[in-house]
Design a protein that fits this description.
This protein has helices at about 5-25, 35-65, 80-100, 100-110, 120, 130, 140-145, 150-165, 175-180, 185-190, 210, 235-250, 255-265. It is mainly alpha-helical.
Length: about 280
């Protein structure tokens, strides 16, 4: 969440969470838990603050690369059609890599740490994503010639789209919609830690990517939400840092240098003793 457009969307986010929570109350559903919701909202507020403070890092990175652009892409309307797909393709691989590399998972796991699935979960965002360098996945866009501000805006619009898919209120969208775009049904699968659902459905906007690259899973039953070892805390500082602390605890002097590097870069749950 790294652009002023996100700030403009906050009233919409707030109203949507309120409406969904009222629906939850009257349906007597288990979509919400008060402490969990406050934790998610705290993570969202922290993310916005950190993003404002660190936005210059991302912009500086993009502007430096933009100086070496291959093409001069003028501000034409059709460039927005191109960047929608280019950005979403990049997001797919960033998202997939964030599940397979523990270094990036340490930031991304925050979004998966809730055992509830509702619109407030969409706001449970990392505080360390920019600092850890997630923006490097978008390096090729300024080199091609997309303006840095255009990239930043598109990244924000992608995130805004993803807000509404974090709900159990909507069961299924029309078939054509489900066949092309990310929906609540598709994204519920992504947030499940059932063995059939783990590491599936990485889409931001379009689901064509995980159909092309073999990571699609249809929703068969209601997922169990969260991570394989849930953290059982609502403290936003612990939520934000728990996996970084876990990585630090796994790195020991008695380990070989290679194994310590693997604790950082291999998939979450890797251990040199294969004990987990």
């Amino acid at each position: 969440m790294n652009n002023n457009i996100i700030l403009l969307a906050i009233p919409f986010f707030t109203l949507s969470v309120l409406i969904e929570s009222i629906i939850n109350f009257y349906k007597k559903s288990d979509y919400y838990a008060l402490k969990d919701t406050f934790a998610s909202l705290s993570m969202g507020i922290g993310n916005v603050i950190v993003s404002i403070l660190t936005k210059f890092i991302t912009l500086s990175f993009f502007y430096v690369l933009y100086n070496y652009r291959i093409f001069e892409l003028n501000n034409q309307w059709w460039l927005w059609l191109l960047i929608i797909f280019a950005d979403d393709f990049t997001f797919y691989w960033f998202h997939r890599f964030s599940h397979r590399c523990r270094y990036f998972w340490a930031s991304h796991v925050i979004h998966h740490s809730s055992t509830k699935y509702n619109l407030s979960t969409a706001l449970r965002q990392t505080w360390t994503g920019t600092i850890s360098g997630k923006f490097i996945f978008w390096f090729w866009l300024p080199i091609i010639g997309f303006h840095p501000l255009m990239i930043i805006m598109m990244k924000s619009l992608n995130l805004i789209y993803q807000f509404w898919v974090h709900t159990e209120v909507i069961s299924k969208m029309p078939k054509l919609f489900e066949a092309v775009l990310n929906t609540p049904s598709h994204h519920r699968v992504h947030h499940g830690y059932d063995s059939i659902y783990i590491d599936k459905n990485y889409a931001g906007i379009f689901i064509i990517w995980y159909k092309l690259f073999g990571t699609f899973q249809k929703e068969i039953h209601r997922p169990k939400y969260g991570i394989t070892h849930n953290i059982n805390t609502y403290n936003p500082f612990k939520v934000a840092t728990h996996e970084w602390i876990s990585i630090y605890q796994d790195i020991k002097w008695e380990n070989s240098f290679i194994n310590n590097v693997k604790y950082i870069l291999k998939y979450p749950g890797w251990s040199h003793s294969k004990s987990r």
